[in-house]
Design goal:
single chain; alpha+beta; BirA Bifunctional Protein, domain 2; four-stranded antiparallel beta sheet; 12 helices; about 45% helix; elongated
Length: about 350
């Protein structure tokens, strides 16, 4: 996360400034006190060493006894999230993404300290960075479509930066914790040309010579040279609509042949992996289909998976109030969580030999 994005939060900015002055003051004192003792008081090496050793005295007198006392506190450990908690140690901050929805406008992190006698837990509510997109973002995408020139873009660059990359970074950042819970190998750094698309088009091999796109998106996917043929999560914004989902950008024939072989050879496992689909109304299956493909007597519920050249599940939405609200974070988080089981199934399929 970039410093500029974090400094937008007033409480974090005050904490950061206070810590900066505190660390600076501590280092000045550590250097200035021995120097003063030598220069003005003509202290001997032994006396300077004694002075330096006294700086560690508070740790010996207070920190160690308090640490032992805390370790002896009885009580049940608080377990949130996944993993084995029997070994002891300190867990990292874990976003609350396990069925408990955080308060509006906040991301909730759980810090867990564990030992063999029990444990302690602390919950930290961090303000969300994402405040919603603005109508200005949609208007910019319309305008850049009509005024697709470098001169026009440079005159409106400040509008672009404020209306599109900034909220995109905030939205991707707010989702990053949950995405790493789904798959720790996902690239989640909220930066243009990493997870967030560039607005500049590469026109070298395209008949369309437009310099700028009239849409933007971000993706969460594993770093790979063949990312087009690997499952990933996405969010895309256009002037009149937005969408989000999971699947392949451009699945190769071998990958889709493996999907069909999976359906033929392990039909029950496949049905279990996609059983959620019939119980929900958020996502639809999309991707080009074969016009003619022998599929035997498979039912329609299986054919819509079997006959695809490419495959992704997507929620298509017209522009609505949700797009301009911080609640978009929770909506996307719930949707991506719903798709996580199929995401892992597709990765297992992809890695089959």
């Amino acid at each position: 996360m970039r410093l500029r994005l974090m400094m937008q939060d007033g409480e974090f900015a005050k904490y950061w400034i206070g810590q900066t002055f505190s660390v600076f003051g501590s280092n000045v004192a550590a250097f200035a006190l021995p120097l003063t003792a030598v220069y003005f008081l003509e202290a001997s090496p032994f006396q300077v060493g004694l002075l330096q050793s006294m700086s560690g005295l508070p740790f010996l007198l207070f920190a160690l006894p308090v640490g032992v006392w805390v370790d002896r506190i009885e009580g049940d450990p608080v377990h949130r999230g996944r993993g084995n908690h029997a070994d002891g140690g300190l867990d990292a901050a874990v976003p609350d993404s396990h069925g408990v929805r955080p308060p509006a406008g906040e991301r909730v992190f759980h810090f867990r300290m564990r030992n063999r006698r029990g444990g302690m837990a602390m919950t930290l509510a961090v303000p969300r960075l994402f405040r919603g997109f603005t109508p200005e973002a949609l208007q910019f995408l319309r305008d850049v479509h009509e005024n697709n020139s470098k001169e026009w873009f440079e005159r409106h660059r400040s509008v672009y930066e404020r209306a599109l990359p900034e909220p995109m970074r905030a939205l991707a950042s707010d989702l990053s914790g949950q995405m790493l819970e789904i798959d720790p190998l996902l690239e989640t750094w909220p930066a243009v040309n990493r997870t967030i698309s560039r607005i500049h088009r590469d026109t070298r091999f395209s008949k369309d010579k437009s310099l700028y796109r009239d849409c933007m998106w971000f993706t969460f996917k594993r770093p790979s040279r063949e990312w087009q043929d690997a499952p990933g999560f996405f969010f895309e914004l256009r002037p009149e609509s937005y969408r989000y989902g999971m699947g392949f950008y451009s699945a190769g024939k071998e990958t889709m042949d493996r999907l069909r072989a999976w359906i033929d050879e392990e039909p029950e496992e496949f049905r279990r992996s996609v059983a959620f689909y019939e119980r929900q109304r958020t996502f639809v299956i999309e991707g080009e289909c074969y016009k003619k493909l022998y599929a035997g007597s498979k039912p329609e519920s299986i054919l819509k998976w079997y006959a695809r050249k490419n495959l992704y599940l997507v929620c298509n939405r017209r522009i609505d109030d949700l797009l301009f609200s911080p609640d978009l974070v929770s909506e996307l988080a719930a949707g991506f969580d719903m798709l996580s089981g199929l995401y892992h199934a597709l990765w297992r399929l992809k890695e089959r030999q």
